[in-house]
């Protein structure tokens, strides 16, 4: 596989604005939605349309419906309903340079494509968070590609801000807030979009052997382009090897930590068992001592009871003797 990255991000409104010096309009969010879901009237460029595969998030129909609903509820700074040609949703596309036929016929190319797709999903989720509604895959055109839909949040004041999901518009708004002129705002827009492409290259394309720019943009010869692609592939392989080594190092570190934790737990359990055994011996000793004291007390009690019984018997004998000599109880009492 040889090629360069292709990643684009555009914004759309409920009704497309007029093109420059033309009566024709730009596509609306509904036009993009129909093309994405492969509505029969919206994909004449596709010989055999196939339903898109949802690889992240919700159905694109739901994503565009959410964008439309929020646009209907949104207001501008004056509190008026926003214009129908105001951008309210951001939609992106990224393409892979191998053909669909190639990745379906070659397991190695299929694996490379799936790796690229996974990196795309991770990059998008990290970039847009909860605003990322869905990512869909198209495999019914010559080159496989993914589309994604990003819907800006609707704050409490109702002022939907497209710049919250589009770095170019965000940079333009910041430039305008600084009081800069149109040229400076345009320069800020381009710089932000270039930064987006650089970030995509760093997080996705460079890991897949893709170059940052195509030969026409760089004005290089075929030989130079081939060398760049060779270097890009070498860099991707080096990154993959580094990541594999990193994962091995992480696994080894985890194993060492787990072993140490297990050893510490065993030592702690041994100490607990030792203390428990000591406490058990002390308790048994206290029990034995208590039983001895109880036994001694019982012997003392038995002795006293025996002595008391003897005294009672002697007293009864004395009383009987007195009775025998005619001395009754009334004779023994005080006069």
Tell me what you see in this structure:
The chain has 335 residues and is an alpha+beta fold. Helix 1 packs antiparallel against helix 2 and helix 5 (167-177) packs antiparallel against helix 6 (182-203). The longest helix is centred in the C-terminal third of the chain and has 103 residues, at 222-324. It has helices at 29-36, 60-73, 100-105, 107-128, 167-177, 182-203, 215-218, 222-324, 329-332, and strands at residues 6-12, 53-57, 89-95, 132-138, 145-150. It has a domain at 6-212: BirA Bifunctional Protein, domain 2 (2-Layer Sandwich).
Put the structure in a nutshell.
With 335 residues, the protein is α+β, with helices and mostly antiparallel strands. The chain has nine helices and five strands; from the N terminus they run E-H-E-H-E-H-H-E-E-H-H-H-H-H. The chain has a domain at 6-212: BirA Bifunctional Protein, domain 2, CATH 3.30.930.
Total strands = 5
Global mean pLDDT: 86
- Gap between N and C termini: 137 Å
Number of helices: 9
Shape: elongated
Could you give a short account of the major beta sheet?
A: 5 strands, antiparallel
CATH class of the domain at 6-212: Alpha Beta
Order of H and E elements:
EHEHEHHEEHHHHH
Enter the CATH topology name of the domain at 6-212.
Answer: BirA Bifunctional Protein, domain 2
Radius of gyration: 44 Å
Percent helix, as a range, is 55-70%
Reading side by side through the largest sheet, how are the strands ordered?
1-3-5-4-2
CATH architecture label name of the domain at 6-212: 2-Layer Sandwich
Low-confidence stretches: none
As a percent range, the share of strand residues is 5-15%
Structural class by sheet pairing and helices? alpha+beta
